[in-house]
Amino acid sequence: MQRPIPVLMYHHVSPKPGLVTVSPENFRAHMAWLAEHGWRSLTAAEFAACLAGAPVPKRAVLITFDDGYLDNWVYAHPVLAEFGLHAVLFLITGWIGEGEVRAHAGQGQPVPDVPDHKGAMAAGRAWQDAADPVPLDGAFLRWSEVHAMRDAGTFEFHSHTHSHTRWDKTIADQDARDRALSDDLAASRATLAARLGNGSAHLCWPQGYYDAAYQRVAQAAGFRHLYTTEAGVARGDTDPARIPRIVVKDKPAGWFASRLRLYGNPLTAALYLGLKGRK
Ligand SMILES: [Zn+2]
């Protein structure tokens, strides 16, 4: 039986509660549990190698974040640094700001206020529509912070498109829609290459939406590993064009441990997912 690789999905780590937000206390408890129980957080390259047939290590997990919120720097980065863990962050590459690195938790300095999910997404959209970087600045990361996290080894960065646009909802004509998505993905890859000096073959779909045309466009743009919001556990034989993830809830270590035990064990993961699939 294939050894599973749970792919965890986080968005916000913040004291402002919300549906896709985990509190700093619970996030720290999750990461502490992983570290104390000998789990290894893979890099995207290690994960890709497993999907290509490399042996899957025991207790291997891929920690992912979507969007690129300021709170990832303020609250998640110091916790990952504390426990020597590593996460993959899918950036909306057009929404990352300029300026100096801001304070993060644990430095004994006041930290910036971070908006909740609704506030952050509204700021991102307003910025995109107005092309005015000012309102965006309090919600999303700056490139200086992206560099600091990369240099610390807490995060690596991949694509969540350049504009987080659902082209399937905005353009009816198939060819025009494919071109818009293709341009969006090309802009994202070019931005990652210019800012970080590396291309990326890892793409996460905005709002989890994709179809066969989306997959074709992404693969033509050079993205081989496509991350979904479909529930499930990756294994060595998982299709890289359809990587399932596990939503991490704002719950304490006991809940997190039960999920990891369930999904981390080949037998119970297969049973559980088989049951879910039959619904
Ligand atoms: Zn997103």
UniProtKB/TrEMBL annotation:
Pfam families attached to this UniProt entry: Polysacc_deac_1
Q: Which PROSITE patterns match?
A: NODB (PS51677)
Q: Which GO terms describe its biological process?
A: carbohydrate metabolic process
CDD domains from the entry? CE4_Ecf1_like_5s
Q: Which GO terms describe its molecular function?
A: hydrolase activity, acting on carbon-nitrogen (but not peptide) bonds
| Protein's UniProt keywords contain Signal | yes
Keywords attached to this Swiss-Prot or TrEMBL record, sorted alphabetically, are:
Signal
Is Signal tagged as a keyword? Answer: yes
Read off the SUPFAM superfamilies from this record: Glycoside hydrolase/deacetylase
User: What are the residue boundaries of the NodB homology domain, all occurrences included?
Assistant: 59-279
What PANTHER family does this protein map onto?
Answer: PTHR34216, XYLANASE_CHITIN DEACETYLASE (PTHR34216:SF13)
Protein name, please?
Answer: Polysaccharide deacetylase
What is the scientific name of the source organism?
A: Oryzomicrobium terrae
